[in-house]
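Hi U.,

Before I forget, here's the chain from the pilot set. I'm dumping it here mostly so it's searchable later in email.
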Amino acid sequence: MAVAIIILIILASSIKVVREYERVVVFRLGRLIGGKGPGVVIILPLIDRFRKIDLRVLTLDIPKQRIITKDNVTVDVDAVVYFRVNDANQAVVKVQDYILATSLLSQTTLRDVLGQVEFDELLTKREELNKRLQAILDEVTEPWGVKVSAVSIKDVAIAVEMQRAIAKQAEAEREKRSRIIMAEGELIASEKMSQAAEYYTKNMAAMRLRELQTWAEIAREKNMIVVTGGDSGNLGPLLGIVKEKIQSSEKQDTDKTRLLIRDEIRDLFEAKKEKKETK
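Structure:
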């Protein structure tokens, strides 16, 4: 009876259930038998040794690494590596601890790759750097039966002093672009003004119309009445400017004010006429 119980216990301990995402690497008397599973796997007591390997994608956080970039900027960078075992036998036979080995390799590769690029590239070309890191890690870990599917740089931290220096550099760059745009605008404006001057020189009628338009704009802005002569050859004001100031509190005197302005304009015309007759 006791022997039967012992046999049942041994048989029960020899039966292993392997899940779909697992594989069992079996060694019999020290020799590799191979990976088994999923399902029920028989392990011979006292003869077989086995190790379970998880085939699912594992996430590996790379701790912050102090890196000096190509342009001598000190940064702290951390990243995350996504990998899985695609060959359970190799993961057991070729490397003692594939997770630790992948972690250490990721740290050294991160420092090596990012130390060869400038700080601006680290900020603007992060996707390209991720792909480069993934390709390097995948090539090295392939003999281990490990597949690195992705690498992602999470955070790039710099010292406060360096942040201030970068902010000043960015401000100077923006001011530089602003000055260039202003200079280009002034150049275009000067070219247009030169073309306009040439046109008005050849077309006196257009020049006279432009003059009248300018006086009209001045009169509208300054609340004035501008009186010009009828002679198209005279490009300046003939009679001058009569200011019109009608306060809101003096609405009842509007007609009187207009009569005074009219008389003043008439006197100016008569004075101009007498001056011409004298000549």
